[in-house]
């Protein structure tokens, strides 16, 4: 008979870290955008400078800056969605299990990324 030893996940530790990460991401999103009142999971990018443009080069610069802000906003929204999914998994009692194989996710992996959804074996899946 082979015994399998399961590591114990400190749920409180990861829940606290995820809550801190959520606050950090929401603050970053609030700096570059505003929440969509119709969809609380979405932010709309707000322009930094709304003054009148006087040179052609300024138009290009503003478009480039908006593109950068949109890319940042998209990345932060994705991170926030992962954090929210992890917090929901904690509430449902499924946190810390690989979505591919169902095995427990390694503690080192959760320490590095508390919102991780796969074990190291399925990292690229």
Concise account of the structure shown:
Helices cover 52% and strands 9% of the residues.
Question: Would you spell out the secondary-structure blueprint of this structure?
Answer:
Blueprint lengths: L10 H22 E4 L2 E7 L10 H37 L14 H6 L13
What do you see in this structure?
The chain is mainly alpha-helical and 125 residues long. The protein has a domain at 11-97. The chain contains three helices and two strands; from the N terminus they run αββαα. The protein has helices spanning 11-32, 56-92, 107-112, and strands at residues 33-36, 39-45. It has a two-stranded antiparallel sheet. Strand 1 and strand 2 form a beta hairpin. The longest helix has 37 residues, at 56-92. It is elongated. Mean pLDDT is 86; it is low at 1-6.
Identify the notable features of this structure and list them briefly.
9% strand; two-stranded antiparallel ribbon; 125 residues; mainly alpha; disordered N terminus
């Amino acid at each position: 008979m082979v015994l399998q030893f399961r590591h114990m996940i400190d749920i409180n530790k990861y829940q606290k870290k995820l809550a801190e990460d959520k606050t950090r991401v929401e603050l970053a999103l609030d700096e570059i955008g505003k929440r969509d009142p119709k969809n609380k999971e979405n932010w709309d990018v707000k322009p930094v400078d709304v003054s009148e443009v006087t040179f052609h080069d300024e138009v290009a610069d503003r478009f480039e800056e908006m593109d950068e802000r949109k890319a940042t906003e998209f990345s932060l929204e994705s991170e926030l969605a992962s954090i929210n999914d992890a917090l929901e998994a904690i509430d449902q009692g499924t946190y810390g299990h690989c979505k591919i194989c169902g095995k427990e996710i390694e503690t080192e992996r959760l320490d590095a990324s508390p919102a991780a959804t796969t074990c190291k074996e399925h990292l690229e899946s």
